[in-house]
Amino acid sequence: MTEQEFRTACLDRGIKLSDDQMQQFRTYTDLLIEWNEKMNLTAITEPSQIWEKHFLDSILPFADMDIRTLADIGTGAGFPGIPVKITWPDIQVTLVEPLKKRCRFLEAVKDSLQLQGLEIVPERAEEFAADHRDCFDAVCSRAVARLSILLELTAPLARPGGLIIALKGPGAQDELAAAAPALKALHLKLIRETDTSLEAGNRVNLYFEKQGLSDRRYPRNFGQIKKHPLEDDAWQK
């Protein structure tokens, strides 16, 4: 995908990008390629693939959404949080990433792109949740963990009535079926599902509404979450 094809694909979804925003995406691309030579940020290093697999894939799930605050859990090299911030600069975005070396990259991107209203937090999701419960309009994550685990890490951060947005691949339906106990325990309801067809493959985006305050038990420490995900009776013991 070329820059112009990316811009046109966004416009087709009602997302109009300015010349300045396109330059921010170019700078982000350059930084991603440069820093990836020093640390493992992404396996996708061809600009044509970055425009589609990272940028467009990050933006499309947020088209037509009205949110003021967003937390991106396990953001890695900044996806989807930074593309969302570039595209909708008025959204206050918090990037949560436990690896400090990746956070140094994110800080470099923030400075180079002069992004205001972007916070970078070098913590694990369950640690971050301790002081940030029930406060974000939306919480998202991309390629972090299977759905039952992902929902426990993200749901406590969203405000009642807020959204959890899971960017998933073609196996989303199987993960959704297994995560039924998680939806019940975390007071979540699936309200929307979208399929995004890209040349790179199909992306399934799942949108959950949080329908009540999160139980203080969640999220558990990651060892417990991984050993006993909210998928069967074992997690209740």
Topology:
Layout: H1 3-12, H2 19-36, H3 47-59, E1 69-73, H4 81-87, E2 92-96, H5 100-113, E3 118-121, H6 125-129, E4 136-142, H7 147-154, E5 158-168, H8 172-178, H9 180-185, E6 188-198, E7 201-210, H10 222-227
Parallel strand pairs: 1-2, 1-4, 2-3, 4-5
Antiparallel strand pairs: 5-7, 6-7
Helix pairs in contact: 1-3, 2-5, 3-4
Number of helices: 10
Beta strand %: 15-25%
* CATH fourth-tier homologous superfamily: Vaccinia Virus protein VP39
Helix content: 25-40%
Low-confidence stretches: none
**CA distance, first residue to last residue:** 49 Å
**Which CATH C-level class is it?**
Alpha Beta
Approximate shape: globular
Per the CATH scheme, the topology name is: Rossmann fold
Number of strands: 7
Number of domains: 1
> Would you tell me the structural class of the helices and strands?
alpha/beta
Q: Label the CATH architecture.
A: 3-Layer(aba) Sandwich
SSE string: HHHEHEHEHEHEHHEEH
Output the strand order for the largest sheet: 3-2-1-4-5-7-6
**Overall pLDDT metric:** 92
Rg calculated over all Cα atoms: 17 Å
The biggest beta sheet is recorded as:
7 strands, mixed
